[in-house]
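Subject: sequence -> structure tokens, single chain

Hey, anyone have a minute? Need the predicted structure for the following. Not urgent.
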Amino acid sequence: MEEWKVAETDVFRKSLKKYVRRHEDAGLQAMHNAARYLELLNAKIPPEQIKLGFVHNEKMHGTIAVDSRKGKRRMKATRLYLFPDRETKTLWYLFIGGKDTQKADLRDRVKPIVNQIIKSRRGEKHGGCD
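Reply:
Had a minute. Here:
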């Protein structure tokens, strides 16, 4: 059984470090929820069939946002953006931020990274990704 690989972009690492400094509980809960999503991928459930209350389709080449729901107490509304690349069986961790900046985060950070990942499949060089 081939498992999904996990890849983190440089942008994600920087955003996570900054985000958990300010909103540790919410950031850690979103990471926990992302781990639950990965477990379902590894159980051979196709990404589009995973239906969880904390997973939201962003309608951008299959990009999803995982939020910080199910935490023990009220936390900052958080979005952890993931891109499940079915061709390479790689779950890309793209960016983490607040719901209040969601529109700008998708436009300015997430969309360019997803486009770079897709271009890399065709052998074009991309930045910000390992």
